[in-house]
């Protein structure tokens, strides 16, 4: 599904990604771990087309199509979703109206009619229940005054609404207490199917107890330096990132 | 001949043409003309007009006295009216009342013409008591209006009357080749416990050089509630100077929402005078302009009595080479203890060439007051843009959604539903999008 070949990316002329290769197949869950500053969030920004980052080399293919020249919204229309580490507050736009706009813009791009209001409401209700979200919450302004946990849960709610092909969850576990973490992980697991894929970006292995990855990659200094199964996460937790740093040197 | 000279030398002939006015008016006009003669048109040398120049506009050869009635069909002007709502309407074309487009009343309240109020004996007392009493007599543009104004809206709401439908005051312009100076004059008196909603609009139907110098006086008696809306979305040939003076009595609540979406040059002089305790004054505005448009908000809230509040909230979005000015003055008299004055001006510049000049001006002489002001100038938030685009919302729509969100605080307090929808549509149209929902 996703194939990243030798990606180099920089921000303000500072090279952050130094040749990343990654292949994610439908039905798989990949975890990308690594110390702070390794380039984890840059990787998610580059896949989703954030214009603050410049891709200097390499290609990002989704189902055989090169995404490099596509705008963030075009990538989203092709089924790429990012759960933000720091979701942005947008006062004056309710969660519901935001989702209606997002879904209908995607449908418009695919040449479909707008989703009928009744269908939209039904979907909102169903997905809100999946993530244990109070209906009142949905009429509040997007992310405004939300707690850290509420923001993350709202991200996964949006993911459930948009049903992406490829979901990248960037530090979704940070700011979540254990109950919220369970709800979010349970939501992600229910949304998982043989046709979609999930990339988890995380600093700690805590989330991986709930969403079990098929592959774990360790990112360090802009490169994937180690790849393994879920046991690699445990090894990392035990030995710390210094183990990686030392083995790379 | 320069416009100023023309106005001074034409005055005698103008006054001779007036018939049957209350005698006091001659003195009022003459006194005002003297002040205008002394001060002339404002220039950039004056602090209050530092960023707004009338020079290019004054060069036109204006017709200064309204001529005959121009007939315009309802279908041509329908879009400028609240057509779905039942309203009282006062419609003027080139400064002259258009009876077939209007809907006046004397049934339980007066919604009628200033020209009747200035001449008919039954209105003499009320004109003597209120006409030209709220204005700043040292302001030259207001003085010019006072000298020449003959027509406009006269609205008199008696005690305890809750006016069931909004009142629309619409000034339309349509001329060919002839530049036009129009000077409407409105007087609105809202009795004790009465409640009214009013919408005012100045609009060119065709491209023509129209210079409107409007003056509005509002007297809100004890516990009166007045919701006033100004919709400014003129063509790029129209210039508007709006002088509005509001005198509030004890416990009255007056709000003015100013929506500035168009016109070549717009200057809003909005003045509130609090003359009683526990008064509430609200001044809100949305400015959304582009091209070479220029909008200048000059507000004054004069807190003259204790225990009153004022709330100012102006949002501005400026694109292309447009220029915005916000100057907000809050004056607190030494006896006006426990005043709560709040002022906020938030601005977004969408282009490198757009300008906003924002200046709060607080003059506080009491020692137990709460006054705050805040001003922000920002660009479009890149992170928010990326967030929305990541969800599949295209750049243009994402920008519009952010701008909608930005204006939301002001939109929330619009109490006429059709107006709210209309304003939301104008915003969407200006931003080049159609949104799937109304705000």
TrEMBL record, chain A:
Domain of life where this protein originates: Bacteria
SUPFAM superfamilies the UniProt entry points to: P-loop containing nucleoside triphosphate hydrolases
Gene Ontology terms, MF aspect: ATP binding; ATP hydrolysis activity
Coiled-coil boundaries: none
Keyword Transcription: no
Listed PROSITE patterns: ABC_TRANSPORTER_2 (PS50893)
Domain ABC transporter: 2-246
Keywords: ATP-binding, Nucleotide-binding
Annotated InterPro entries: AAA+_ATPase, ABC_transporter-like_ATP-bd, FeS-cluster_ATPase_SufC, P-loop_NTPase
Pfam families: ABC_tran
Similarity field: Belongs to the ABC transporter superfamily. Ycf16 family.
NCBIfam families: sufC (TIGR01978)
Name the UniProt record assigns to this protein: Fe-S cluster assembly ATP-binding protein
Organism expressing this protein natively: Myroides indicus
From TrEMBL, chain B:
Domain of life (superkingdom): Bacteria
GO terms of biological process kind: iron-sulfur cluster assembly
Pfam families membership: SUFBD_core (PF01458), SufBD_N (PF19295)
Domain SUF system FeS cluster assembly SufBD core: 177-406
InterPro entries: Fe-S_cluster_assembly_SufBD (IPR055346), SUF_FeS_clus_asmbl_SufBD_core (IPR000825), SUF_FeS_clus_asmbl_SufBD_sf (IPR037284), SUF_FeS_clus_asmbl_SufD (IPR011542), SufBD_N (IPR045595)
Domain SUF system FeS cluster assembly SufBD N-terminal intervals: 4-169
Family to which the UniProt record says this protein belongs: Belongs to the iron-sulfur cluster assembly SufBD family.
Protein name, per record: Iron-regulated ABC transporter permease protein SufD
Organism expressing this protein natively: Myroides indicus
């Amino acid at each position: 599904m996703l194939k990243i070949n030798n990606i180099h990316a920089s921000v303000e002329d500072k090279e952050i990604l130094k040749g990343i290769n990654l292949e994610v197949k439908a039905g798989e869950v990949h975890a990308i771990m690594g110390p702070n500053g390794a380039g984890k969030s840059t990787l998610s920004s580059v896949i989703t087309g954030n214009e603050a980052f410049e891709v200097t080399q390499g290609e990002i293919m989704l189902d055989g199509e090169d995404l490099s020249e596509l705008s963030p919204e075009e990538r989203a229309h092709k089924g790429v979703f990012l759960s933000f580490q720091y979701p942005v507050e947008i006062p004056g736009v309710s969660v519901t109206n935001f989702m209606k706009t997002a879904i209908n813009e995607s449908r418009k791009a695919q040449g479909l009619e707008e989703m009928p209001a009744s269908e939209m409401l039904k979907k909102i209700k169903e997905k809100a229940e999946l993530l244990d979200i109070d209906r009142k919450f949905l009429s509040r302004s997007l992310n405004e005054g939300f707690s850290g946990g509420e923001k993350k849960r709202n991200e996964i709610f949006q993911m459930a609404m948009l049903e992406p092909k490829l979901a990248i969850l960037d530090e979704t576990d940070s700011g979540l207490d254990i109950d919220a973490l369970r709800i979010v992980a349970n939501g992600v697991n229910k949304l998982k199917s043989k046709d979609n894929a999930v990339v988890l970006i995380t600093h700690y292995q805590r989330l991986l107890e709930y969403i079990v990855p098929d592959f774990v990659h360790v990112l360090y200094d802009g490169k994937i330096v180690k790849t393994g199964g879920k046991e690699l996460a445990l090894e990392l937790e035990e030995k710390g990132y210094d183990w990686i740093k030392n083995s790379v040197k | 001949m320069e416009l100023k000279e023309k106005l001074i030398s034409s005055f005698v002939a103008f006054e001779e043409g007036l018939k049957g006015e209350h005698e006091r008016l001659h003195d009022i006009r003459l006194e005002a003309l003297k002040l205008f003669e002394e001060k002339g048109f404002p220039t950039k040398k004056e602090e209050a007009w530092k960023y707004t120049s009338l020079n290019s506009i004054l060069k036109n050869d204006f017709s200064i006295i309204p001529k005959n009635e121009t007939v315009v069909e309802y279908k041509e002007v329908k879009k400028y009216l609240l057509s779905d709502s039942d309203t009282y309407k006062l419609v003027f074309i080139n400064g002259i009342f258009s009876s077939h487009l209007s809907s006046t009343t004397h049934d339980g309240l007066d919604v009628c013409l200033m020209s009747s109020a200035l001449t008919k004996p039954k209105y003499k007392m009320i004109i003597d008591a209120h006409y030209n009493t709220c204005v700043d007599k040292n302001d030259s543009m207001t003085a010019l209006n006072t000298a020449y104004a003959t027509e406009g809206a006269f609205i008199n709401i008696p005690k305890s009357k809750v006016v069931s439908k909004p009142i629309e005051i619409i000034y339309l312009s349509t001329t060919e080749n002839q530049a036009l100076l129009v000077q409407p004059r409105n007087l609105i008196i809202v009795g004790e416990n009465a409640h009214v909603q009013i919408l005012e609009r100045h609009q060119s139907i065709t491209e023509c050089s129209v210079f409107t110098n409007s003056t509005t006086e509002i007297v809100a008696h004890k516990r009166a509630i007045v919701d006033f809306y100004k919709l400014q979305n003129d063509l790029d040939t129209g210039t508007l100077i709006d002088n509005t003076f509001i005198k509030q009595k004890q416990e009255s609540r007056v709000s003015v929402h100013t929506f500035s979406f168009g016109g070549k040059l717009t200057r809003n002089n909005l003045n509130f005078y609090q003359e009683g305790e526990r008064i509430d004054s609200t001044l809100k505005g949305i400015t959304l302009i582009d091209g070479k448009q220029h909008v200048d908000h000059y507000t004054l809230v004069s807190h003259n009595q204790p225990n009153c509040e004022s709330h100012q909230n102006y949002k501005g979005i400026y694109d292309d080479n447009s220029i915005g000015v916000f100057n907000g003055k809050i004056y607190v008299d030494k006896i006006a203890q426990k005043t709560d004055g709040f002022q906020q001006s938030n601005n977004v510049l969408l282009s490198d060439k757009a300008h906003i000049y924002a200046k709060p001006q607080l003059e506080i002489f009491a020692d137990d007051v709460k006054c705050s002001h805040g001003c922000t100038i920002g660009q479009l938030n890149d992170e928010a843009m990326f967030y929305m685009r990541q969800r599949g919302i295209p750049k243009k729509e994402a920008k519009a959604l952010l701008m909608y969100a930005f204006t939301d605080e002001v939109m929330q307090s619009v109490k006429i539903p059709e107006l709210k929808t209309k304003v939301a549509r104008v915003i969407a149209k200006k931003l080049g999008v159609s949104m799937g929902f109304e705000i």
